[in-house]
Amino acid sequence: MPYIGFGNEKEVYLLGRVLRNREVGYATIDDSRFKNFKKMYKRFMTWEIPNIRITASFEGKQWTTMTDEEGYFEFQIKEYSFPKTDHSWRVFDLELVDQVLPKQGMVKTEANIFIPTKLVEYGIISDVDDTIVPTGATRFWEMIKTTFLGNAYSRIPFPGVAAFYQALAKGTDGKENNPLFYVSSSPWNLYDFLLELLVVHQIPKGPLMLRDLGLSRDQFIAGSHFDHKLNQVEKIFRLVPDIPFILIGDSGQYDPEIYLEVIKDFPGRVKRIYIRHVAEKRKEEVLQIQTTMLQLGVQMLLVSDTVEAAEDALAQRWIREVDVQKIIEEKSESEIKNP
Protein backbone atom coordinates (compact mmCIF):
# COMPACT_ATOMS: atom_id res chain seq x y z
CA MET A 1 0.00 0.00 0.00
CA PRO A 2 2.05 2.99 -1.19
CA TYR A 3 1.06 6.41 0.11
CA ILE A 4 1.30 9.43 -2.20
CA GLY A 5 4.87 10.72 -2.08
CA PHE A 6 6.30 14.16 -2.74
CA GLY A 7 9.53 16.06 -3.06
CA ASN A 8 11.51 18.46 -5.20
CA GLU A 9 13.94 18.22 -8.09
CA LYS A 10 16.68 16.89 -5.79
CA GLU A 11 14.86 14.77 -3.20
CA VAL A 12 11.81 12.51 -2.97
CA TYR A 13 10.04 11.12 0.09
CA LEU A 14 7.84 8.02 -0.20
CA LEU A 15 6.18 6.05 2.58
CA GLY A 16 4.06 2.92 2.38
CA ARG A 17 3.12 -0.30 4.10
CA VAL A 18 2.98 -4.01 3.28
CA LEU A 19 -0.12 -5.72 4.66
CA ARG A 20 -2.22 -8.77 4.09
CA ASN A 21 -5.03 -7.80 1.72
CA ARG A 22 -8.22 -7.66 3.80
CA GLU A 23 -10.26 -6.83 0.67
CA VAL A 24 -11.92 -3.78 2.16
CA GLY A 25 -13.00 -2.55 -1.26
CA TYR A 26 -14.69 0.72 -2.16
CA ALA A 27 -17.72 2.17 -0.40
CA THR A 28 -21.09 2.68 -2.03
CA ILE A 29 -23.76 5.23 -1.22
CA ASP A 30 -26.09 2.42 -0.07
CA ASP A 31 -23.72 0.76 2.42
CA SER A 32 -25.30 0.13 5.83
CA ARG A 33 -23.73 1.21 9.12
CA PHE A 34 -22.96 -2.44 9.85
CA LYS A 35 -21.14 -2.84 6.53
CA ASN A 36 -19.22 0.37 7.19
CA PHE A 37 -18.25 -0.96 10.62
CA LYS A 38 -16.98 -4.27 9.16
CA LYS A 39 -14.81 -2.42 6.65
CA MET A 40 -13.42 -0.12 9.31
CA TYR A 41 -12.74 -3.09 11.58
CA LYS A 42 -10.67 -4.68 8.80
CA ARG A 43 -8.69 -1.44 8.39
CA PHE A 44 -7.64 -1.55 12.04
CA MET A 45 -7.18 -5.30 12.43
CA THR A 46 -4.18 -5.43 10.10
CA TRP A 47 -1.74 -8.24 9.42
CA GLU A 48 1.61 -6.51 8.85
CA ILE A 49 4.47 -8.03 6.85
CA PRO A 50 7.78 -7.09 8.56
CA ASN A 51 11.42 -7.33 7.51
CA ILE A 52 11.03 -7.78 3.76
CA ARG A 53 12.67 -5.91 0.91
CA ILE A 54 10.87 -3.47 -1.39
CA THR A 55 12.36 -1.95 -4.54
CA ALA A 56 11.34 1.35 -6.11
CA SER A 57 12.18 1.95 -9.78
CA PHE A 58 12.07 5.12 -11.87
CA GLU A 59 13.56 5.75 -15.32
CA GLY A 60 15.96 2.82 -15.05
CA LYS A 61 17.20 3.67 -11.55
CA GLN A 62 16.40 1.38 -8.60
CA TRP A 63 16.39 1.75 -4.82
CA THR A 64 15.78 -0.86 -2.10
CA THR A 65 14.51 -0.60 1.45
CA MET A 66 13.03 -2.93 4.09
CA THR A 67 9.77 -2.92 6.00
CA ASP A 68 9.95 -2.37 9.74
CA GLU A 69 8.24 -4.45 12.44
CA GLU A 70 4.85 -2.94 11.54
CA GLY A 71 5.20 -3.35 7.80
CA TYR A 72 6.06 0.28 7.03
CA PHE A 73 8.65 1.09 4.40
CA GLU A 74 10.23 4.45 3.61
CA PHE A 75 12.27 5.82 0.74
CA GLN A 76 14.24 9.05 1.07
CA ILE A 77 15.83 9.41 -2.34
CA LYS A 78 18.47 12.12 -2.56
CA GLU A 79 20.97 10.96 -5.17
CA TYR A 80 18.79 11.51 -8.23
CA SER A 81 17.72 14.53 -10.27
CA PHE A 82 14.00 15.17 -10.79
CA PRO A 83 13.92 18.26 -13.04
CA LYS A 84 10.84 20.46 -12.88
CA THR A 85 8.47 20.03 -15.82
CA ASP A 86 4.94 21.10 -16.72
CA HIS A 87 3.62 17.88 -15.14
CA SER A 88 3.28 17.49 -11.36
CA TRP A 89 3.16 13.71 -11.05
CA ARG A 90 5.85 11.04 -11.40
CA VAL A 91 5.07 7.32 -11.22
CA PHE A 92 7.44 4.92 -9.43
CA ASP A 93 7.19 1.13 -9.81
CA LEU A 94 7.28 -0.80 -6.53
CA GLU A 95 7.99 -4.51 -6.22
CA LEU A 96 8.12 -6.98 -3.35
CA VAL A 97 11.53 -8.69 -3.49
CA ASP A 98 11.23 -11.39 -0.84
CA GLN A 99 8.85 -14.34 -0.81
CA VAL A 100 6.13 -14.13 1.84
CA LEU A 101 3.77 -16.83 0.59
CA PRO A 102 4.44 -20.04 -1.36
CA LYS A 103 3.94 -19.50 -5.09
CA GLN A 104 3.17 -15.82 -4.52
CA GLY A 105 4.44 -14.77 -7.94
CA MET A 106 5.29 -11.18 -8.74
CA VAL A 107 3.84 -8.55 -6.39
CA LYS A 108 3.99 -5.07 -7.96
CA THR A 109 2.21 -1.74 -7.76
CA GLU A 110 2.74 1.92 -8.64
CA ALA A 111 3.36 4.90 -6.39
CA ASN A 112 2.44 8.46 -7.32
CA ILE A 113 4.97 11.15 -6.43
CA PHE A 114 4.11 14.86 -6.47
CA ILE A 115 6.89 17.23 -7.56
CA PRO A 116 5.76 20.86 -8.00
CA THR A 117 5.93 22.21 -11.53
CA LYS A 118 7.52 25.42 -12.79
CA LEU A 119 4.03 26.98 -12.81
CA VAL A 120 3.29 26.75 -9.05
CA GLU A 121 2.10 29.98 -7.41
CA TYR A 122 1.81 28.64 -3.85
CA GLY A 123 1.08 25.46 -1.92
CA ILE A 124 -1.78 24.62 0.43
CA ILE A 125 -1.55 22.58 3.63
CA SER A 126 -4.84 21.60 5.22
CA ASP A 127 -6.01 19.77 8.30
CA VAL A 128 -8.81 17.23 7.70
CA ASP A 129 -10.96 16.63 10.81
CA ASP A 130 -13.31 19.56 11.49
CA THR A 131 -11.58 21.53 8.73
CA ILE A 132 -12.66 19.65 5.60
CA VAL A 133 -15.30 17.38 7.11
CA PRO A 134 -17.18 17.58 10.44
CA THR A 135 -15.78 14.93 12.75
CA GLY A 136 -16.34 16.02 16.32
CA ALA A 137 -12.61 15.59 16.97
CA THR A 138 -12.95 17.43 20.25
CA ARG A 139 -15.69 15.03 21.39
CA PHE A 140 -14.17 11.54 21.60
CA TRP A 141 -17.22 9.28 21.43
CA GLU A 142 -18.83 11.32 18.68
CA MET A 143 -15.60 11.03 16.69
CA ILE A 144 -15.51 7.23 17.20
CA LYS A 145 -19.12 6.84 16.08
CA THR A 146 -18.57 9.02 13.02
CA THR A 147 -15.39 7.17 12.07
CA PHE A 148 -16.63 3.60 12.44
CA LEU A 149 -20.22 3.87 11.19
CA GLY A 150 -19.81 6.23 8.23
CA ASN A 151 -18.14 5.96 4.83
CA ALA A 152 -16.82 8.25 2.11
CA TYR A 153 -20.35 8.99 0.88
CA SER A 154 -22.05 9.55 4.21
CA ARG A 155 -19.25 11.81 5.51
CA ILE A 156 -20.21 15.15 3.96
CA PRO A 157 -17.59 17.95 3.80
CA PHE A 158 -18.39 21.44 5.01
CA PRO A 159 -20.35 23.35 2.35
CA GLY A 160 -18.15 24.81 -0.37
CA VAL A 161 -14.93 23.05 0.66
CA ALA A 162 -14.47 21.07 -2.58
CA ALA A 163 -14.92 24.14 -4.80
CA PHE A 164 -12.65 26.23 -2.55
CA TYR A 165 -9.83 23.70 -2.68
CA GLN A 166 -10.28 23.37 -6.44
CA ALA A 167 -10.01 27.16 -6.69
CA LEU A 168 -6.82 27.20 -4.64
CA ALA A 169 -5.34 24.41 -6.76
CA LYS A 170 -6.12 26.45 -9.90
CA GLY A 171 -4.82 29.74 -8.50
CA THR A 172 -4.97 32.61 -10.95
CA ASP A 173 -4.18 30.71 -14.14
CA GLY A 174 -6.88 28.02 -13.76
CA LYS A 175 -4.47 25.12 -14.43
CA GLU A 176 -4.49 23.27 -11.07
CA ASN A 177 -0.73 23.45 -10.57
CA ASN A 178 -0.78 24.47 -6.90
CA PRO A 179 -0.13 21.43 -4.66
CA LEU A 180 -2.37 20.43 -1.76
CA PHE A 181 -1.09 18.53 1.25
CA TYR A 182 -3.30 17.07 3.98
CA VAL A 183 -2.00 16.68 7.53
CA SER A 184 -4.06 14.82 10.11
CA SER A 185 -3.68 12.97 13.39
CA SER A 186 -5.83 10.18 12.01
CA PRO A 187 -3.98 6.83 11.84
CA TRP A 188 -2.48 5.44 8.64
CA ASN A 189 -5.15 2.72 8.87
CA LEU A 190 -7.58 5.32 7.50
CA TYR A 191 -5.43 6.26 4.51
CA ASP A 192 -7.53 4.54 1.83
CA PHE A 193 -10.73 5.82 3.45
CA LEU A 194 -9.52 9.44 3.46
CA LEU A 195 -8.22 9.22 -0.09
CA GLU A 196 -11.59 7.83 -1.17
CA LEU A 197 -13.31 10.68 0.67
CA LEU A 198 -11.32 13.22 -1.37
CA VAL A 199 -12.13 11.49 -4.65
CA VAL A 200 -15.85 10.99 -3.94
CA HIS A 201 -16.34 14.65 -3.04
CA GLN A 202 -14.07 16.00 -5.82
CA ILE A 203 -11.54 17.53 -3.46
CA PRO A 204 -8.13 17.71 -5.17
CA LYS A 205 -5.94 14.81 -4.10
CA GLY A 206 -2.50 15.25 -2.62
CA PRO A 207 -0.14 13.65 -0.12
CA LEU A 208 -1.80 12.63 3.15
CA MET A 209 0.42 12.85 6.23
CA LEU A 210 -1.14 10.66 8.93
CA ARG A 211 0.01 9.05 12.19
CA ASP A 212 0.99 5.58 13.33
CA LEU A 213 -0.86 3.96 16.24
CA GLY A 214 1.53 1.03 16.58
CA LEU A 215 2.87 -0.26 19.88
CA SER A 216 6.36 -0.88 18.59
CA ARG A 217 7.12 2.52 17.10
CA ASP A 218 8.52 4.37 20.14
CA GLN A 219 5.23 4.46 22.05
CA PHE A 220 1.55 3.49 21.86
CA ILE A 221 0.61 6.53 19.78
CA ALA A 222 3.57 7.88 17.83
CA GLY A 223 4.04 11.34 19.29
CA SER A 224 1.54 13.91 20.50
CA HIS A 225 -1.04 15.49 18.23
CA PHE A 226 0.88 18.78 18.36
CA ASP A 227 4.31 17.28 17.66
CA HIS A 228 3.04 15.03 14.89
CA LYS A 229 1.30 17.80 12.94
CA LEU A 230 4.13 20.29 13.45
CA ASN A 231 6.73 17.77 12.28
CA GLN A 232 4.70 16.84 9.19
CA VAL A 233 3.98 20.43 8.18
CA GLU A 234 7.62 21.37 8.58
CA LYS A 235 8.68 18.30 6.59
CA ILE A 236 6.56 19.61 3.71
CA PHE A 237 8.16 23.06 4.04
CA ARG A 238 11.64 21.51 3.88
CA LEU A 239 10.93 19.20 0.94
CA VAL A 240 9.06 21.87 -1.05
CA PRO A 241 11.38 24.79 -0.32
CA ASP A 242 10.82 27.32 -3.09
CA ILE A 243 7.16 28.30 -2.66
CA PRO A 244 4.99 30.04 -0.05
CA PHE A 245 2.05 28.27 1.59
CA ILE A 246 -1.53 28.94 2.64
CA LEU A 247 -2.36 27.00 5.83
CA ILE A 248 -5.90 25.86 6.64
CA GLY A 249 -7.14 24.39 9.90
CA ASP A 250 -9.71 24.72 12.67
CA SER A 251 -9.82 26.11 16.19
CA GLY A 252 -10.61 22.82 17.90
CA GLN A 253 -7.25 21.00 18.08
CA TYR A 254 -4.40 23.50 18.30
CA ASP A 255 -3.92 24.22 14.61
CA PRO A 256 -3.36 27.95 15.41
CA GLU A 257 -0.60 27.06 17.90
CA ILE A 258 1.02 24.67 15.43
CA TYR A 259 0.90 27.18 12.58
CA LEU A 260 2.40 29.86 14.84
CA GLU A 261 5.45 27.63 15.34
CA VAL A 262 5.69 27.15 11.57
CA ILE A 263 5.71 30.93 11.04
CA LYS A 264 8.55 31.26 13.55
CA ASP A 265 10.57 28.41 12.05
CA PHE A 266 10.02 29.41 8.40
CA PRO A 267 9.75 33.21 8.30
CA GLY A 268 8.41 34.61 5.06
CA ARG A 269 6.98 31.30 3.83
CA VAL A 270 3.35 31.62 5.00
CA LYS A 271 0.99 33.77 2.91
CA ARG A 272 -2.19 33.43 4.97
CA ILE A 273 -3.85 31.18 7.55
CA TYR A 274 -7.55 30.30 7.48
CA ILE A 275 -8.97 28.80 10.70
CA ARG A 276 -12.50 27.41 10.76
CA HIS A 277 -14.13 28.51 14.01
CA VAL A 278 -15.51 25.32 15.60
CA ALA A 279 -14.62 25.78 19.29
CA GLU A 280 -16.19 28.84 20.92
CA LYS A 281 -14.44 28.12 24.24
CA ARG A 282 -11.06 28.64 22.55
CA LYS A 283 -11.94 31.89 20.80
CA GLU A 284 -9.97 34.17 23.15
CA GLU A 285 -6.87 31.96 22.92
CA VAL A 286 -7.08 31.92 19.13
CA LEU A 287 -7.49 35.70 18.95
CA GLN A 288 -4.38 36.13 21.10
CA ILE A 289 -2.46 33.90 18.68
CA GLN A 290 -3.86 35.97 15.81
CA THR A 291 -2.33 39.09 17.37
CA THR A 292 1.05 37.40 17.77
CA MET A 293 0.97 36.25 14.15
CA LEU A 294 0.24 39.79 12.95
CA GLN A 295 3.33 40.98 14.80
CA LEU A 296 5.28 38.38 12.81
CA GLY A 297 3.79 39.63 9.52
CA VAL A 298 1.18 36.90 8.87
CA GLN A 299 -2.57 37.36 9.01
CA MET A 300 -4.76 34.56 10.36
CA LEU A 301 -8.49 34.75 9.64
CA LEU A 302 -10.96 33.06 11.97
CA VAL A 303 -13.83 32.19 9.60
CA SER A 304 -17.29 30.78 10.16
CA ASP A 305 -17.65 29.28 6.69
CA THR A 306 -15.77 28.54 3.49
CA VAL A 307 -17.07 31.55 1.58
CA GLU A 308 -15.41 33.95 4.03
CA ALA A 309 -12.04 32.40 3.33
CA ALA A 310 -12.68 32.36 -0.43
CA GLU A 311 -13.63 36.04 -0.50
CA ASP A 312 -10.41 36.94 1.28
CA ALA A 313 -8.36 34.81 -1.14
CA LEU A 314 -10.08 36.59 -4.03
CA ALA A 315 -9.35 40.00 -2.49
CA GLN A 316 -5.67 38.98 -2.31
CA ARG A 317 -5.86 37.94 -5.99
CA TRP A 318 -4.88 34.35 -5.23
CA ILE A 319 -7.95 32.78 -6.86
CA ARG A 320 -10.31 33.72 -9.69
CA GLU A 321 -13.69 35.43 -9.32
CA VAL A 322 -15.36 32.77 -11.48
CA ASP A 323 -14.23 30.11 -9.00
CA VAL A 324 -15.57 32.06 -6.02
CA GLN A 325 -18.98 32.02 -7.67
CA LYS A 326 -18.71 28.23 -7.90
CA ILE A 327 -17.90 28.07 -4.20
CA ILE A 328 -21.00 30.12 -3.34
CA GLU A 329 -23.17 27.92 -5.56
CA GLU A 330 -21.75 24.69 -4.13
CA LYS A 331 -22.28 25.94 -0.57
CA SER A 332 -25.92 26.81 -1.32
CA GLU A 333 -26.58 23.44 -2.98
CA SER A 334 -24.94 21.54 -0.12
CA GLU A 335 -26.97 23.39 2.51
CA ILE A 336 -30.19 22.55 0.66
CA LYS A 337 -29.27 18.84 0.37
CA ASN A 338 -27.91 18.56 3.91
CA PRO A 339 -29.81 21.10 6.05
From TrEMBL:
Descriptive protein name: Phosphatase
Q: Which Pfam families match?
A: APP1_cat
Domain Phosphatidate phosphatase APP1 catalytic intervals: 122-277
InterPro entries xrefs: APP1_cat (IPR019236), Mg2+_PAP (IPR052935)
